[in-house]
Amino acid sequence: MAHGPMEQFNIEPLVGLKVGGLDISYTNSALFMTFAVLASFLVFFTATRRRTMVPGRWQSVAELLYEFNAGMVKDNVGKEGLKYLPFIFTLFLFILFGNILGLMPYGFAFTSHIIVNASLALFIFVSVTIIGFARHGLHYFSLLCPKGTPLPVALVLVPIEIMSYFIRPVSLSLRLFANMLAGHVLLKVLAGFVVTLGLLFGWVPLVAVFGVTLLEILVALIQAYVFALLSCIYLNDAIHLH
């Protein structure tokens, strides 16, 4: 039986559970979120189990990932942002492993679901807003209109800045969602051509599948980076304003 390219995104309950009419079943999406968390833990547990002055393979990977994220936070938020590094680092790893696990055979890309990305983006948006008001009080509203802005300009600028501020979680979640969805649909379509064309001509889309898979691995890395980077930029606004 043929399967459409969108069926790979179906959420299927693995362990049915309802509480008060609310369905909180453990699904394939939740399973791969669990895998992403376990993969992050295993990488760093393996890397730090036997720490040496001359790092081995896994320790080198762990140190590279840590230094990469620490540099990103320091460059975009400053030294004050380093206390938020554990959160940014965790966010980066969760999305990265979520993207990569979705590319594996029989994998499930939970980052291709808008509800997952929107939940992460909304949490970041609310947290950054709380940090901004906690640090600056009502002065945080100056983020919408820099000091010294002429009144005619402010009348135009403030509505635009308000809309831009509240669109942050939407753009943050949609960017990851669209890239992951499009890539997986393309891979599924090309894989379908391999089966349809058979041994004689199937090698052509097979080569394309290989190339697109390499591209999707790169996209998985870039999208995890972009999500974390934008989170750093929003955090910088909350800490330093303009």
Write the layout of secondary structure elements.
Elements (H helix, E strand, L loop, with lengths): L12 E3 L2 E2 L2 E2 L2 E2 H22 L7 H21 L7 H17 L12 H23 L14 H16 L1 H34 L1 H38 L2
Helix pairs in contact: 1-2, 1-3, 2-3, 2-7, 3-7, 4-6, 4-7, 6-7
Whole-angstrom Rg:
22 Å
- Strand percentage, roughly? under 5%
Q: Main sheet, how many strands, which sense, barrel?
A: 2 strands, antiparallel
What is the CA–CA distance across the termini? 58 Å
Number of helices: 7
Which structural class should the secondary elements be placed in? mainly alpha
Overall domain count: 1
Let me know the number of strands: 4
Low-confidence runs = none
Helix content: over 70%
- One letter per element, helices H and strands E, the order comes to EEEEHHHHHHH
Oligomer: single chain
Mean pLDDT: 88
Shape: globular
Strands of the largest sheet, in order across it? Answer: 1-4
Report on this structure.
The chain is mostly helical. It has one domain (7-240). Helices cover 71% and strands 4% of the residues. It has helices at 28-49, 57-77, 85-101, 114-136, 151-166, 168-201, 203-240, and strands at residues 13-15, 18-19, 22-23, 26-27. The chain has a two-stranded antiparallel sheet. A two-stranded antiparallel ribbon has the order 2-3. Helix 3 packs antiparallel against helix 7 and helix 4 packs parallel to helix 7. The protein is globular and about 70 Å long.
